[in-house]
Amino acid sequence: MRSSFQGSAGQGRKGFSAVRIVIIIALVTVLAFLVYLVSKRSGDPGKNPASATPTAKGKATAATPSKKPEPSPVAKNIPMITVNLDELEYRIKGTEDVSMVSQPGDIRTVGMGKGSTLQVEFDQEPSSYIISLYKGEELVFSGKTSIIIQEDIPANGEYRAVCEAVYDSKEYSGTAKYIFNIKADFPPLPVISATETLPGELLVITVKYVDPEDEIKVETDLDFKPNIFDYDNKKVILQPVSYYNKADRVYSIKLTIGEETHSFAVQVNEKEFAVQNLTIDPKIEAETRNEKSAQERAEKIDPLRPVCDDVPYWRGDFIMPVEGGRVREYDFGKTRYVNGSPTSYRHNGLDIGHDEGVPVMASNRGRVLIAEYLIQTGNTVIIEHGFGLKTWYYHMSELNVKTGDMVEKGQVIGKVGSTGFSTGPHLHFSASVNSVYINPITLVNEGVPLLRIEE
Length: 455
Description:
Layout: H1 2-42, E1 52-54, E2 60-62, E3 81-85, E4 88-92, E5 108-112, E6 117-122, E7 128-135, E8 138-143, E9 147-149, E10 157-168, E11 173-184, E12 189-192, E13 196-197, E14 202-208, E15 216-220, E16 228-231, E17 234-240, E18 249-257, E19 260-268, E20 275-278, H2 282-288, H3 291-300, E21 335-338, E22 345-346, E23 349-353, E24 359-361, E25 366-374, E26 378-384, E27 389-396, E28 398-399, E29 406-407, E30 412-415, E31 426-433, E32 436-438, H4 440-446
Parallel strand pairs: 5-11, 13-19, 20-21
Antiparallel strand pairs: 1-2, 3-4, 3-6, 6-9, 7-8, 7-10, 10-11, 12-14, 14-17, 15-18, 16-17, 18-19, 21-22, 23-31, 24-30, 25-26, 25-29, 26-27, 27-31, 28-30, 31-32
């Protein structure tokens, strides 16, 4: 039995060995075939999975070879610039494509304050260049200059500076733009039109670089409390000097702007005003200068004096309201006695002698505050030109405008006449800031100081 058992075990081992050999051969064959397939596929770029792109239907198609990326405009051989500011240097790269530096982080910001001067230096000298400043989308400065100073910047705040340079050299040929931001923070800068003047003239004060939170107060001994207006990134103050102010003395104008104080000393020089003894028909005087006319004036004229629209309507120069005629400069401010009266009054304008019916024109653009017949001044027109600046027209024979109209410079508003308190055909023409009369000839000849508003 043992022999039989042993014999059977030997035969089983031989059979098992044969099976193992067959399996190993099969595995080697399969492995070799797989290696062949892999090597064949890797050698065919059209079947390389890394080169295939799935389509919408799930099939693979050959990918289009990607183009070599174009170099960034900033990466081209564009010369750089240096911005010198307050002993600091800022290097700015150039670009041919503004969109490449459209992100805030791509743009350098430099600060300008009191006494700052910004200068641009080029690594390579361009054939031409221009620097422009923008506040938002608005162009506020543009010039063929490499220097930016305080006067070039209209107000505090942030500005986009664009330096555009044209090059024509072997190193680089083309147009490059250099973009950086300027943050302006200047202290208030008040300016007065004159520190020496005459009675009956107009002073103007402008203040630049006033922050919105800064309150402005004006104190003066010129007996007039001025209003403060906003125009063209500035605060504007119209300060008339009355002919009632004593001459040959110095007056003070003190501005408090936030926590800062600025003072101006204004010398008002002597001026000789004429004296007139006027003779007029006593009947006309009695009919036109009486209690009723005084009450009418108080009710209809006096409320208009403090009116001051916060928009300057006028444009360009003021004009004389009639062509030709007799104009005597000494009419303004003269002391007038009527029919031998011991009391006098100051004549607040010009009496322009002319023929009856001659057209009377608006001295400048403005809003008609009143166009009406009044007992003392006859057919009367008062025009508000903005900021409290007014012109007055008396004694006309007829009116061609009505209260509330907007009139243009040179527009006919009436005709020369002799209505009201008048000795004959003429136009009484006055100018004032609120209740203080100023010399109309100076207004026509020189305009409003520091405020040149183009037509």
